[in-house]
Amino acid sequence: MKELLRPARLAPGARVAVVATSGPVPEERLQAGLDVLRGWGLDPVTGPHVLDRHDEFGYLAGTDADRAADFQNAWCDPRVDAVLCARGGYGAQRMVDLLDWEAMRAVGPKILVGFSDITVLHEAFATRLGLATLHGPMAAGIDFIKHAGAQEHLRATLFAPETVRTIASGGTPLVPGRARGVTLGGCLSLLAAERGAPHARPSASGGLLCLEDVREETYRLDRYLTQLLRAGWLEGVRGVLLGSWEECADHAELRPLLADRLGSLGVPVLEDVGFGHCAGARTVPFGVAAELDADAGTLTLDQPALR
């Protein structure tokens, strides 16, 4: 697995676009997130459909076409340096193939930030644009607007990425050891759902795979991991980092499952890395070469996440 092209870091005064790719966005949370971004010296703008709600499917922030148009227009706007997703939920799969990837490639590298349902876009950016992205908190997310730790880690990644090259976790090795590879991953259920989709990544070979999820029954997590194993998608993976399993089963129930499904890979596995659906979530770049030291509980990037 090759490293991906890293976008440039932000500077004070940079314009960032906040768009809704998936679920509907509460206005008060959006405004709170925009205030945080302004406090960093950024110039945030929003897509015209950011507060839309689909007339028929209330779990979507407007129509697929409108969400795709907002995203593409933001990305292709030469005045915009980064696109921040407003929230996750569901819907990115419905709009990702409506994007004009050739037009987006012509624009050159920019920063994409998001997680959860945005896993679909992380994967698409890797396979279609060869571009590194940031798995981090979203502008209208409770985990962002209510937690200074998540804000500070994202701010440091955007403005001074050399200060967060080592992502310390205080985690526990499920399988000890060290490994080197290129970071990738996201929400486990979305990674499983992408198998067989157009332009899906053929495998995680050569990668340091980051996995997390939210509000999933243990048997469903088992199903997702088993699907990835049966599909051969985990063959050649170099190491695994496990983030949060918020509103899933107790750790005492999850740990045996994770050990059962991932232990046979014969690679280091580190738990409790502190990314995903959790308070103070860290921002993890995808597409960057790094070293995982499960015994020390660290992920250390070879280079800063952004240039």
Can you tag this structure with a few keywords?
single chain, 2 domains, 307 residues, Glucose Oxidase, domain 1, alpha/beta, 22% strand, Rossmann fold, 10 helices, six-stranded mixed β-sheet, 14 strands, eight-stranded mixed β-sheet
Structure explained in plain terms:
The chain has helices at residues 27-39, 64-76, 92-95, 101-107, 119-129, 142-145, 148-159, 188-193, 218-230, 251-262, and strands at residues 15-19, 43-46, 82-85, 111-114, 133-135, 166-168, 172-175, 178-187, 207-214, 239-246, 269-271, 284-286, 289-293, 298-301. It has an eight-stranded mixed beta sheet with strand order 6-14-13-8-9-10-11-7. A six-stranded mixed beta sheet has the order 2-1-3-4-5-12, with helices on both faces. It is globular and about 50 Å long. The protein starts with 14 loop residues before the first strand and ends in a 6-residue tail after the last strand. It has 307 residues and is α/β, with parallel strands linked by helices. The mean pLDDT is 97. The protein folds into two domains: 15-164, 3-Layer(aba) Sandwich (Rossmann fold), CATH 3.40.50.10740; 166-301, 3-Layer(bba) Sandwich (Glucose Oxidase, domain 1), CATH 3.50.30.60.
